[in-house]
Amino acid sequence: MARGIDAADEVIAILDRALSAPMFREVGRLASFPIANQVLQKRAGYRELLRTFVLTETGAQLALDWDIQDAFAASQRNIATLYEYWAFLQLAKSVGQVCGEDLSPHVLEPAKDGLSLAFSRGKASRLRWTTSARGRSMVVELYFNRDFLASRVLDASWTRAMRPDCSLRIRPDGFSTDVSADDLSVWLHFDAKYRVEYAEQFAKPPADDGDRAVEAEAIERLARSKREDLLKMHAYRDAIRRSAGAYVLYPGEQHHEPFVEHHEILPGVGAFVLRPTSGDSAGTDVLERFLADVLDHVADRSTHHERSRYWGAVIHRVPPPTGGNPDRRLPVLARPPSDTQVLCGFVRTVGHRQWVEHHGIYNVRAGDRPGAVGADAALLQATDVVLYGRDIRPTLWGRAGAWFVQSQDEMAALAYPDPGGRVYLCCPIERREDEPEWLGLLQLDSERWSGQPIGTPFVTTWQDLLDASVS
């Protein structure tokens, strides 16, 4: 102990000699901090010292509800990490406020040593709520530092592994038996970003004196990091499957409305102010309103977003066929081939085909006899017509007008070969010049297409015809 006292006395003596130097006799009390000094803001070394000072001052002002005796204890740790923990707690409280139950106490768990508390991470950190909106039940799950590995499974990244700070999944009940609740679920991601821009009260942007270096430095300090954060949100939303939104949480002052991709609240990206204060946390009211609007949006079955998720699940459920005929050319279509119907009409003989070509009329049976087509049949809505028959090459036609009724006598007057029915449905058609070459190679005179006896007209899609050409 005596050795330690002697060493301390020696340090005190050194400090006394240093403080008695003439330079320190001219030093007075600092009335205002020279934050606008150009040497501090521009010169290398001084600039880093100023930044460290700003971070230290900001750390001292960070208000936490934990029992921290030393005001600078926060600055002795990674402030960004502390803010990340605090932001997750606040987000858990906000989600609980919207869902009707506060589960934030379950965020912490005993550490391995059994003497302290730690944050659960990954799938083990899940907080789960069951709620309802618009008469639709929903499961809401919140995770801290959940990994989304690169995989082809549902809840994964399709590029590189991602690990947002906070991830919120909302799973509504299924739209129908065609898709599952997982198909309609949405992910929202939140990243806590503690930046030095929060300390603008300590460091104003340098004056624009025409120096491009000064201007670039101002942009880097005041804008660049926020722009990079927003780009990271795009990466989360685009890479993680079923992600509908990604948002920054930052301790700023001014709230800006999130960006929306179309017309609805989702899909979107943006940033929310979430700042610790001595009272209620700033920004939680805006965040809770947003979360409530998101729940209402996901529960609404009539949104464009739900329709997009539904059809996306249906479309991508089965991979497209590969190999076969490389010729995938199609005629001019108003809609994608999967959504464009084609009437495949049977012509009985070469004479029947010549009659169709001469009069520009295609007919189907009507009335109550076998093979008759009802007035509400889906095939009557198709505007593209493919005529085929036994040993007759399929050809492409287009419907040139509405369907009309013709009697047996009227068909006979048009020299229709062997009119055996009392009534027919007819439509005007005309030959199309954009017929793909592969169409003539299809074997349409098979029950595999209609599931009905050969000779019955049926409706299919251009995608089905195209897939058959490459199979």
Weakly predicted, low-confidence segments: 63-72, 196-209, 215-225
The tally of structural domains comes to 2
**How many whole angstroms does the radius of gyration measure?**
36 Å
Spatial separation of the terminal alpha carbons: 90 Å
What's the main sheet like?
7 strands, mixed
Strand ordering within the main sheet: 3-4-5-6-7-9-8
Strand content: 15-25%
Mean pLDDT value: 82
**Helix proportion:** 25-40%
**Overall 3D geometry?**
elongated
- SS summary, helix count: 13
> What is the H/E string?
HHHHHEEEEEHEHEEEHHEHEEEEHEHEH
Tally of DSSP β-strands? 16
What structural class do helix, strand and pairing data support?
Answer: alpha+beta
Question: What is the element layout, followed by pairings?
Answer:
Layout: H1 2-19, H2 22-25, H3 38-42, H4 46-61, H5 79-99, E1 108-110, E2 117-119, E3 122-133, E4 136-144, E5 166-172, H6 181-184, E6 186-192, H7 212-239, E7 243-250, E8 259-260, E9 268-273, H8 284-299, H9 304-315, E10 341-346, H10 350-359, E11 361-365, E12 384-389, E13 392-399, E14 404-407, H11 408-413, E15 423-431, H12 447-450, E16 458-461, H13 462-470
Parallel strand pairs: 6-7, 7-9, 10-12
Antiparallel strand pairs: 1-2, 3-4, 4-5, 5-6, 8-9, 10-16, 11-15, 12-13, 13-15, 14-15
Helix pairs in contact: 5-8
